[in-house]
Amino acid sequence: MNPSNPPQAAEYGGDEVSAIVLDPGYSTTRAGFAGEDAPKSLIPTYYGKYNADGQEKLVFGDDIFVTPRPAMSIHNPIGKDGIVEDWDMAEKVWEYSFTSRLTGSKPGNPFLNGLNDIPAEELPTEMEVELEEKSLADSPLLMTEPAWNPAKAREKTIEIAMEKWGTPAFYLARNGVLASFASGKASALVIDIGASNISITPVHDGMILKRGVQHSPLGGDYISSQIRALFKKNSPQPITITPHYLISSKTAVEAGQPPQAKYRTYPADKAPDASYRALLEERTLSEFKECVVQVWPGPNKLSATGPTGASNEEMARSTPGRPFEFPDGYNQVFGVDRFRVVESLFDVKAAIPDPDSPVPAPTQAQTIPELIKASLGGVDVDIRPHLLANVVVTGGSSLLYGFTDRLNHELMQLFPGPRVRISAPGNTAERRFGSWIGGSILASLGTFHQMWISKKEYEEHGANIVEKRCK
Amino acid sequence: MAAAADVRDMLDLPAEGQPRPTKKAKVVEKRPEGITRELYALLGERAPPIAINENKYKGRPKFMNKLRVRKWCMTPFANNARSDGLVLNHWQREHESTRPPAPEPNQMELDETKEEGKEAPKPKEQEYAFAKYNIKARVPRRYTDEEYNRHLKSDDWSREETDYLMNLATEYDLRWVIIADRYDYQRHLDSEPDANAIVPAKQYRTMEQMKSRYYYIAATMLAIEHPPSEMSEAEFALHEQMLKYDPDRERDRKELAALQLNRTADEVREEAMLLEELKRITSNEQNFITERRELYSRLEVPISVGNTAMYQSSQGLSQLLQTLLQADKSKKRRSILGPEGAIPSPVGQTPTQATALGRAETPSTTAAAKDTKKGPAVPPTQPAVRTLTPAEEARYGVQHHERLQGGVQFRSDRAQKLTQAKSNVQTQKLASALAELEIPVRLFMPTERVCKDFEKLIQSVNLLLDARKVAEKVESEIRVLEAARAERERKNAPEGSSKDTEHPEVKTEADDGGNSMLGSTAADATESGAPAGGEGQAKGDEGASSQTPVKEDGNHKRSASVLSSVSDKSSKRQRR
After folding, report:
1. Per-residue pLDDT reduced to its tens digit, B274-298
2. What ipTM is given for this predicted complex?
3. What are the φ and ψ backbone dihedral angles of A87, each rounded to 5 degrees?
4. How many Cβ atoms sit within 10 Å of the Cβ of residue B456?
5. How far, in Å, are A243, A262, B39, B327, B467 from residue A325 at the CA level?
6. Where are the alpha helices (DSSP H) in A170-217?
7. Which positions in chain A touch B263 (Cβ < 8 Å)?
8. B84 min Cα distance to partner chain A (Å)
9. What does the alpha-carbon distance between residue A36 and residue A315 come to, in Å, rounded to a whole number?
10. pTM, rounded to two decimals
11. Torsion angle of alpha carbons A239, A240, A245, A250, nearest 10°?
């Protein structure tokens, strides 16, 4: 293909209007230009707040991990159920996500940037309003939302996009629908394993089926709490996680031996808030999840007996363990325990009890098989086999080793009759950014441009239009 | 090679102590570009792990240098599919008309000529290429108030709810799955105090109810627009189809579909197994048919083989062999040797017949043939033999037989034979008894259970008939005796001497009758209403009336009860 020729529009139906796709999640916020294959801007949704010189300052993006500023506390504008709680901060975080990498900060007011200093008395005051630049003035914006987003929150979102950012056109799409688009399906059963939530969304012809939407809080954060419970009960000694910023040096120790590290201490007035430590501990835990944690691949539960008569736990024990070294140098090989921490996603009885944990113990109805069952129970019987043949797995926590195998076995056990087919992209980025990629596809389609809610329509009908248009 | 050893020497590496990794078969590798031959030779056989490939910049092909650079520019465009005239920007070639992205060249050419005339091309005016995909599902025209009141009123659906349904149908382009999902009709509450009473009574509409209402409206509207007599064929078909929508049937279908979906693993496995079996049977069937045709064509029937019963004894078999040999000899003499004729046919024929019979016994090839006998039994060739519980056996129709006869027979025939008694009179009696019970002589549905029950019925009918006969006999004897007594009394009055001579005679007769009633009802049953005779006569009777050629059973049967004799007979028939 000659690179200087454009692809024929009819070939792929694309027509790029330099739209921005913003996919806010609980743990990370993704933003990028539509038509690209991965979000250019990936920032944590967490932000830091601290006081300096008597002023409250905010830290966004990856900067929050870097410097432990005195008394810096970490917050998240999004609630545990994936719905925005703190709208002012959510707006700031989201704005940061696209201004930092995509649109750039707009040139400031020429009267205020110091280049055009004129005596204050000559400043024409009435011009100030006109000169105020909106950050998204020339990019349509496609945002995503969870399927259970209440109408209030949706209206608030379009309000911010239209009034604060000044986008010419806006659309709000469900992330389940987008994830199914990302894997090229108009109808699918989307299983999204996120940080704070897992959700099952049946999608039919590009629309969610509201009665089939199920979600439960057994996401990545829940797995972290299970890992913490496991560490507390660890057999030679309980493991405490010391994040990197508290360690100045360490020496290598044998597996299972107490760590020998020099710790960095902060005086009380310089130390960051406890939430800062929790955030960094969470980073270590996600490393642990990536390297060690494994889902028992099935068939059957970890507690059941396998086909050979030996219990599955025995089988798991016989597989070689996986070592992990903590930031302070302590290291240990994790055997069957690495299966236990995620088993409760499928089998509630396998949950590691931890009375001190802020995370409540899971219930049977919150496990993935039960959610799927409930979700399919809420949709018409005629499309159930079709949905089962198009199961889309997305979300960062679904990258747990062996997860899709187990899911496949569970589904086959639940529904032995119909054909079950799971489509889970092997590419890590495609799995983590499934709904963003779907949004990127959608917003760069020529046929989609009739769906945007334009500024004019918003002004005519008000924020309520989002309920009518983004169905 | 030497170079490699030198290098080892220089770097103080141990000499080639451990054997090298096995040499690759492909030693001669193509020298990658960008390495001189000398350098490549120095490298020896071990190619560097990283391919040294210089990524050369491939510039534009030469012919393109002569072309003019064509400009792209950010062009605003409006989408005709929108009503609000939103203007978005996208990149486009500057002279859109020379290189149209839209796939309609004719129209583009037209545009080109037009634009040339105008001298000022305005890309904005060009129709947006994707606007044509903005299509909506065709929904019927919305009814007016009058139309609604006249044709569409329903007890179940209020006007408001109907409007709501029609709006949803339009909004979601008749995608019923989504309509049913989003259907959330809030009844407009007329008065506040009633609200609490109405809310719990809010009925839940199923998709079938919605569809039924919608189709009714659509069909009615269609009929209002065009009366059925004026409809085109397609319209009429649509009208018919919409009118015939049956929500109950649809609901039943969905229930069945749900059942089908929620099958257990066992059921699914079983179905798969049965399907596999069916596949095998059908695939073997063709094979079997051709084999059988071949067999038929080869069998030159030497004698009529209508009845195989005569070949059951060893004598019969030897006779058959004789005749076959005879036939074969004559054949040989004629020396008609077809392709199969090379095999000597006496040996060739009988074994094929035998194999055909033998195959009929193996379920793998002719499960169909076996069905009449055993029902769809689990074939013994199945690797996984599982023991069935009695309930399962009953379900699958598995039966166990002590002994099986070769060949095929109808179960109904067996039942039929039961109604044939040894004598015509008895048969008629049986038939009349059955007629009285309104049971057809030929069973409609000769299933295993029906046949069993029928057999029982026939037995009890036989028993009843026997009992009646005995009763009649006893009655007649009593009458005779009473007559005799009356006679005697009458005679006694004039003379008492002849009393002694007659009395014992009568007594013995009565004893005989009682004996036969107790012990040999079987014999009696076969005697068609004849007065109780001697034992020899009964035996002779039975021999004459029974169709079995085997006579030696007669003695044994005399002492047997009715039940056992019947079962004996049936087993004999089975054997045959």
Report:
1. 999 999 999 899 888 988 888 888 8
2. 0.84
3. -70, -35
4. 10
5. 12, 16, 45, 93, 98
6. 175-182
7. 416-417
8. 7
9. 44
10. 0.64
11. -40
